[in-house]
Amino acid sequence: MKISNNQVCNLLGIKYPIFQGGMAWVSDSDLAAAVSNAGGLGIIAAGNAPKEWLVEEIRKTKMLTDKAFAVNIMLLSPYVEDIIDAIIEENIKIVVTGAGNPGKYFKKLNENGIKIIPVVPSVAQAIRMERNEGVVALIAEGAEAGGHIGVTNTMSLIPQIVDAVKIPVIAAGGIADGRGMAASFCLGASGVQVGTRFLVAEECNVSDSYKEKVLNAKDTSTMVTGISTGHPVRVIKNKFAKKFKKMEDMKSSLEELENFSRGSLRKAVVDGDVDNGSIMAGQIAGLVKKRESCKSIIEDLIRTYERTVTSIYG
Ligand code: TUI
């Protein structure tokens, strides 16, 4: 059974309702353009980067694709205001927000005709976000996801958010193939966001050792650090994650934890130091076994989605 007349595709002008997760330090112009060219929604992650970096990546993406793409604003960034200025100046039409409440930026984004898609980890946040002008859809992200997460898992979160709002819901957290995509649609989602599987894409510029960690992961390879600090983050278990957790258990101060973890994502993604860096990835990493192009990933998602749906509904 093929996907047809999909709300998310119609809303954003894309071929397939598949978003590539906006992953800090990872989701650059090469990855976003490859996903958009393959029919999904490529997303550049501003992360903690300064405005100049984002402007350059937006311009590169426009040279690499004529398809729709988005920018993800990480709301813990010290540069959020500058990032929003860059988004407006560079005429970006779709914005995804994550890791906080984007409330105070809605007016400016909406005035500039930007479609806003907040990531939400709970029903309360979903309801709060939907009330705002310019919010056209929501990404409901379950705690299977990599990186900064909420507490509720995808299987429970999606149907509860779908029932609580009227706008389309995109499911995220634990989805890496067409079965996960079909399951998300069964729960009422109109699209999916995939992060972990794109970490090993040929067009993804993360270090080779990071990719190997994802490819070698199994179902139990991730853990959550930062629960004590109020910023839970799912990562692949390694020396860094175990030490961080130990420091939390020993009641290290927030300052000590911040000093220990500062720059840790960059260390793993850019420098390839997968012992002392933070290897953010979702619980579905155990399913990701192959390096391939973004086009091949998206085609596989669609093919296995159609096969799964046909096997359920005939
Ligand atoms: O944002 C993400 N995942 C991320 S961001 C990131 S960069 C980072 N690095 C180190 C420490 C922390 C972050 C790595 N992974 N996912 C989207 C997401 N948003 N998950 C959960 C939320 C969220 C949380 C709270 C959304 C809204 C929210 O509201 C809280 C409030 O203050 O209202």
Quick tags:
314 residues; alpha/beta; 8-stranded parallel β-sheet; 3-stranded antiparallel β-sheet; 14 helices; 11 strands; binds ligand TUI
Word description of this protein:
With 314 residues, the chain is α/β, with parallel strands linked by helices. Helices cover 41% and strands 15% of the residues. The chain contains 14 helices and 11 strands. Strands 1-9-8-6-5-4-3-2 form an 8-stranded parallel sheet. A 3-stranded antiparallel sheet has the order 7-11-10, with helices on one face. The protein is globular. The site of ligand TUI has 21 residues, from strand 5 and strand 7.
Structural class designation = alpha/beta
Mean pLDDT: 97
The share of residues in helices is 40-55%
Largest sheet strand order:
1-9-8-6-5-4-3-2
Low-confidence region ranges = none
The set of bound ligands, ions and cofactors reads: ligand TUI
What proportion of the residues form beta strands (DSSP E)?
5-15%
Spatial extent as radius of gyration: 18 Å
Count the E strands. 11
Through-space gap between termini: 8 Å
Helical segment count: 14
Query: Can you tell me the overall shape?
Result: globular
Largest sheet: 8 strands, parallel
Q: Name the helix and strand elements from N-terminus to C-terminus, one letter apiece.
A: HEHEHEHEHEHEEHEHEHHEEHHHH
Describe how the helices and strands are arranged.
Layout: H1 7-12, E1 18-20, H2 29-37, E2 42-45, H3 51-64, E3 69-74, H4 80-89, E4 94-98, H5 106-111, E5 115-120, H6 123-130, E6 138-141, E7 147-148, H7 154-164, E8 169-172, H8 178-186, E9 191-194, H9 196-199, H10 208-215, E10 222-225, E11 233-236, H11 239-249, H12 254-261, H13 264-269, H14 294-313
Helix pairs in contact: 2-3, 3-4, 8-14
Bound molecules: ligand TUI.
